[in-house]
Write a structure and sequence with these properties.
Layout: H1 11-19, H2 24-31, H3 36-43, H4 47-55, H5 61-71, H6 75-78
Helix pairs in contact: 1-2, 3-4
Length: 80
C-alpha cells in the first residue's frame, strides 16, 4: 500500500515520543516550532485550556480532529 508523504511521521516526532515521553500533541507542536499560545489562538481557547489538551494521554477523537486541523496535519499523524 502506497502511503502519502503528508501522512508520514518524522523521525524527530518518534524520538520525542519515545525518548522524552511526550504526548503526540506536544511532540507535533514542538516539531512545528509553535508555542502553546499560538496553537490555543488557532483553536480559539485559552493557553491554559490548550495545555490541558496537550497533556492528555487519551484525548477524544473530536479533540484530535480540532488539534490536527490547527497544526495543519492529519488526524492519523496525530493519533499515534
Amino acid at each position: 500500500m502506497k502511503q502519502d508523504k503528508a501522512e508520514l511521521i518524522p523521525n524527530e516526532i518518534v524520538g520525542m515520543l519515545v525518548e522524552q515521553n511526550m504526548t503526540p500533541i506536544r511532540a507535533w507542536r514542538g516539531y512545528l516550532k509553535l508555542t502553546q499560545a499560538q496553537v490555543a489562538e488557532r483553536l480559539k481557547i485559552t493557553q491554559a485550556a490548550y495545555a490541558q489538551l496537550e497533556a492528555s494521554q487519551r484525548p477524544r477523537k473530536s479533540t484530535l480532529q480540532r488539534v490536527s486541523a490547527a497544526l495543519e496535519i492529519t488526524v492519523e499523524q496525530l493519533a499515534i
